[in-house]
Amino acid sequence: MYFPRRNPIRLLLALCPAFLISAAAPAQQPAPAQAATAPGAAPQFDVAAIHLHESQPHEHNSIWSSPFDGHFKAENMSVVMLIQWAYEMPDTRILDVPGWARSTYFSIDAKADPAVDQQLRKMSSDAGRKVKEQMLQALLANRFKLATHTETREMPIYALVIAKGGAKLGDINDGGTVVNSWRDHLEVQGSNSLALLAEVLADELGRPVLDRTGIAGRYHLTLKWTPDDAASAATSNSSAPPSIFTALEEQLGLKLVPQKGPVQVLVVDHVEMPSAN
């Protein structure tokens, strides 16, 4: 998940065994995070410490979360970034967000009852990830008073398609799920790598990107380009990478086609600064 940003972002979305290890947990005693879980409902965090984070230049935005335990940590994350993770929704499809929810950063350390650890250890990685997403959704609703709904809207999009000459994806890769994004290059690997790539490109380009390649599977994809604001300086350097559109076609055999189409979006109805610990 990636977003127009003032600092380089490296947000690792791998679930096995964990995401990106963040800094040490806040020292303050966590406060109760959720009410008791109703029978049959998804588990919730028992305690969660949430603190404002003073973002530093070039600091990573980091999440640590294993699908096999009830511990969740985040460092230097905005509310929009947390919504992206909790709802698997790219930034370009999260609408009606107040400015502070993009510009204010938080650190979170949330833990569930040990019984949740036992429950998650019996699940697959994908199932555990879904449960952790639901747990973060509940935390956002409880502490940030987040309320949302989904809609389908007609929007300008890019369709990710196979370029003339065919895709250049390499062999199917059996590794974990990884997403790394920097200002001028990215690395993607996941159970549906092309759909994951489309999400990363959407946040890089500021417009929804829909995967219409018809290619499923787990690939290890890398892409390197010259950002628009550096393109003029790179023209005299024959070894500089091309634009992101050209790089996508040359390096991966894929193409972005501008279109309009129906896009599912997540509309934020209400959100507040978090309640005190």
Automatic annotation (TrEMBL):
Swiss-Prot/TrEMBL keywords: Signal
Secretion signal, residue range per the UniProt entry: 1-27
This protein's name: Soil-associated protein, TIGR03435 family
